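queue> pop job 88
queue> type: inverse folding (structure -> sequence)
queue> payload:
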């Protein structure tokens, strides 16, 4: 019936999706969302690997012996331990599905200088059944994206790839879904999907329908990453998309329907509250939130996220003909108590060997980037003046440390750095290696100096705060709050859009910054940015690219290494961001980024 109406009406793609969403809400009988099968099925949830091949320190939330909640630093992750835990779970639950969701092949030197190829073989050896790419998986540019994920065999794609590198692009050995991105540059007369939106497969006699959604922030990361692609945006569009595919999967025989989504926990939960019944679970990625208890929703769908590469999620579903499905969720740490799988240890060693050798010699990691690597990534470049990490939404120690060093070096009024989430924790006094720097700064923009008025600075900060604290999760974008240096900022994150910045002061003098005051600033710029754009924000004047001592563009990574090796590093930074609303912050609160929901919609 739905197909008949769609064929008989002339509508845009979005209007078609909306039309199907309305029909789904009206036509899907309740019996359609209650499985009639019997059995047991386990979903194993891996997300946001960020190319971490080996164990690393991470900041995690933990209930300590006296019952209080604290954050602790412990070693987590590593693909060899991940493989062991996966094998243990599969031995316990033979009828299982391993999902890989979100950023996988980008992060760190091994990934950057191989365009993700070094990560492929170890990840393929995990035995993944199905996956979804993340926003950072688009960061090698559209040609690599097409060759890796879309099996683009066109002569043009291979010609461009051969110009960039003699090495072919390695591909995942499992199906990859993303129903919200289309190719706008194709031989078709209209847009065609980059990847399939859905996948239907039976596991132990239970038929599962998968819907895949990648991140839609790629165009805002860089226009270059999204060239030739079109991404769906907005709550209504995603509601229609999920309703359409859930209905079709149920009609095709799916007894369970799950959404694998890189939109993030907050968007997925908002979406679960407005879709029609028909989805059982949203398996989230992107926001690195570790959900110990599933979020419930008005549609009946559960929503979970398994942190990042330091965890695996385990969702066991028991199906019965006489009752509704039973869902059991566990969040399992990948820690030092898990032995390393020998096969994965060998694959990881092979992948890392070219980066540990005494004859390391890699040139340009990607077009328009001059960042050669000629030393082992184990080279020590300094020591950490304080514990550095990014596990803080508003007061990231690493982001503020970098901004403070940029400001000190250029003697500007302030400095701004992007609010990325990924990291590799380094404790105070420990050695900082090149590997650590590439973990924090695998994105190679260059530094630039400019001026900005107090009024425009407030607008930039308000935009950044909206991207993190908006009650409408579909206004969230990117990571957490940017790093700042040279400013004391009072904010109230409980207030509405464009009303969260209360005061801005010069950190040195304590003087209040007025709207007409012009301030000098150092930040980052990227190839093909529009005029007046720094750090993905508009409103800057007289933007001037900055050069390193050798006269070439200076990446933040090279800049920070220079400061660590040749300048005194002061532990105490100048400037801070203070939230006057006094929120219950992580780790006391369960979520790093606030979860704005109606109280009755959360079972937590």
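queue> result:
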């Amino acid at each position: 019936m739905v197909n008949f109406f769609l064929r008989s009406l002339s509508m845009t793609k979005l209007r078609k999706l909306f039309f199907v969403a309305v029909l789904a809400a009206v036509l899907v009988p309740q019996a359609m969302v209650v499985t009639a099968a019997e059995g047991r099925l386990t979903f194993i949830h891996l997300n946001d690997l960020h190319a971490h091949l080996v164990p690393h320190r991470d900041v995690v939330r933990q209930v300590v012996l006296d019952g209080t909640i604290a954050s602790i630093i412990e070693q987590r992750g590593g693909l060899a331990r991940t493989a062991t835990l996966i094998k243990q779970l599969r031995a316990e639950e033979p009828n299982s599905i391993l999902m890989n969701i979100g950023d996988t092949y980008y992060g760190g030197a091994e990934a950057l200088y191989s365009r993700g190829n070094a990560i492929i073989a170890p990840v393929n050896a995990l035995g993944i059944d199905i996956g979804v790419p993340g926003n950072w998986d688009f960061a090698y540019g559209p040609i690599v994206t097409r060759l890796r994920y879309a099996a683009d065999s066109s002569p043009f794609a291979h010609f461009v790839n051969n110009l960039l590198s003699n090495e072919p692009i390695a591909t995942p050995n499992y199906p990859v879904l993303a129903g919200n991105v289309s190719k706008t540059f194709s031989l078709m007369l209209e847009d065609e999907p980059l990847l399939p939106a859905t996948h239907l497969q039976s596991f132990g006699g239970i038929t599962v329908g998968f819907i895949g959604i990648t991140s839609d922030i790629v165009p805002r990361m860089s226009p270059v990453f999204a060239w030739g692609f079109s991404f769906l945006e907005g709550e209504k569009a995603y509601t229609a998309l999920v309703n359409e595919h859930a209905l079709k999967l149920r009609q095709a025989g799916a007894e369970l329907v799950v959404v694998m989504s890189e939109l993030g926990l907050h968007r997925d939960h908002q979406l679960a509250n407005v879709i029609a019944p028909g989805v059982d679970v949203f398996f989230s990625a992107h926001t690195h939130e570790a959900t110990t208890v599933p979020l419930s929703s008005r549609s009946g769908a559960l929503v979970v996220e398994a942190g990042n590469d330091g965890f695996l999620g385990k969702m066991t579903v028991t199906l019965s003909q006489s009752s509704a499905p039973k869902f059991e969720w566990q969040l399992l740490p990948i820690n030092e108590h898990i032995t390393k799988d020998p096969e994965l240890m060998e694959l990881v060693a092979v992948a890392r060997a070219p980066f540990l050798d005494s004859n390391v010699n890699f040139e340009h990691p990607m077009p328009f980037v001059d960042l050669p690597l000629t030393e082992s990534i184990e080279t020590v470049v300094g020591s950490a003046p304080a514990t550095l990490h990014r596990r803080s939404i508003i007061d990231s120690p690493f982001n503020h440390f970098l901004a403070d060093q940029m400001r000190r070096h250029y003697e500007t009024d302030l400095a701004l750095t992007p609010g990325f989430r990924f990291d590799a924790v380094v404790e105070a006094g420990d050695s900082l290696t090149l590997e650590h720097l590439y973990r924090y700064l695998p994105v190679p923009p260059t530094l630039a100096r400019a001026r900005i008025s107090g009024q425009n600075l407030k607008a930039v900060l308000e935009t950044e705060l909206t991207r993190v604290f908006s009650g409408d999760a579909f206004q969230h974008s990117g990571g957490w709050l940017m790093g700042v240096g040279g400013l004391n900022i009072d904010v109230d994150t409980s207030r509405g859009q464009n009303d969260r910045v209360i005061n801005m002061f010069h950190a040195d003098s304590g003087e209040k910054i007025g709207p007409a005051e012009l301030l000098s600033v150092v930040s980052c710029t990227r190839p093909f940015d529009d005029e007046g754009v720094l750090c993905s924000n508009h409103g800057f004047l007289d933007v001037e690219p900055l050069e390193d001592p050798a006269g070439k563009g200076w990446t933040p990574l090279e800049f920070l290494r220079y400061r660590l090796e040749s300048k005194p590093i002061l532990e105490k930074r100048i400037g801070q961001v203070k939230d006057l609303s006094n929120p219950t912050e992580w780790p006391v609160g369960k979520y790093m980024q606030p979860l704005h929901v109606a109280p009755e919609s959360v079972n937590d």
